[in-house]
Design a protein that fits this description.
5-stranded mixed beta barrel; 5 strands; OB fold (Dihydrolipoamide Acetyltransferase, E2P); mainly beta; elongated
């Protein structure tokens, strides 16, 4: 028997929960609990409330999912780049 394919949705993080979980509102107005995928943890991709993300959901349990991608928005990116850059001291 072949493995079932995962459903992929886009959504927005509405709340940060303990233990690396997030409440995500999907584009179809369904709310799920999602955890950060291992690849995102490994590459230290930080997710905040208001970020647009892609979520994988199993067809067996539609209330839980896994964050697989954080989309880069131009408005949020411009806001973060306006913060002062940390200076690296030069060696003499």
């Amino acid at each position: 028997m072949a493995k079932e394919e995962l459903l992929e949705f886009e959504g927005i993080i509405t709340e940060a929960l303990p233990e690396g979980r997030f409440r995500v509102r999907l584009v179809n107005d369904h709310e799920i609990i999602a955890y950060t995928a291992g690849r995102m943890k490994k590459n230290r991709i930080r997710t905040l409330v208001g970020d647009r993300v892609s979520v994988e959901v199993s067809p067996y349990d539609l209330n839980k999912g896994r964050l697989i991608f954080r989309h880069k928005d131009t408005a949020a990116e411009g806001f973060r780049s306006a913060s002062p850059q940390r200076r690296i001291p030069r060696r003499r």
